[in-house]
Amino acid sequence: MKARRDVFQAIADPTRRAIIGLLAKQTQTLNTVADNFNMSQPAISKHMRILTECGLVVMIKQGRERHCSANFKALEEVAQWAEQYRSFWSSRLDALENLLNESD
């Protein structure tokens, strides 16, 4: 049984993050996405497959072209994970600020 890729695996790669950034601006065809990178079409297709497997990109076939759009709902898992650390560090920095203010 093949394990489903997760969002964290997908965003770990800088090329995939760049693809998501492109698609955040507008829906593009697969070829248009590929034109933005200095790599082969099969390499871009592999990145796109990973992004679609984890739900970050939705591809719709229209005629001979595949139109790609970003699905930011899939990033909610990342946002929730990061939030716990933001809260932790925010409280720690607040405590440090209070300590520094007391010493003045």
Automatic annotation (TrEMBL):
It comes from the Bacteria. Residues 1-90 form the HTH arsR-type domain. InterPro entries: ArsR-like_HTH, HTH_ArsR_DNA-bd_dom, WH-like_DNA-bd_sf, WH_DNA-bd_sf. Pfam families: HTH_5. This is Winged helix-turn-helix transcriptional regulator.
